[in-house]
Design brief:
mainly alpha; about 55 residues
Length: about 55
């Protein structure tokens, strides 16, 4: 990942330069990934029986 791409992701997340003092690069990447997955819809939701058989 390049510096401009990292800074673009920070802007897209609404992070300030002061916020970056408290966050790691990995945490910012995880936040961006989770934001992109917020609208994902899943076809199947696991039930208790699924967890028991796992």
């Amino acid at each position: 990942m390049t510096t401009p791409l990292f800074l673009l992701r920070c802007v897209q997340l609404g992070l300030s330069m002061a916020d970056l003092d408290l966050l790691s690069i990995g945490l910012v990447n995880d936040m961006f990934t989770e934001r992109e997955n917020d609208d994902a819809e899943y076809d199947y939701r696991a039930t208790q029986g699924d967890f028991d058989s796992f």
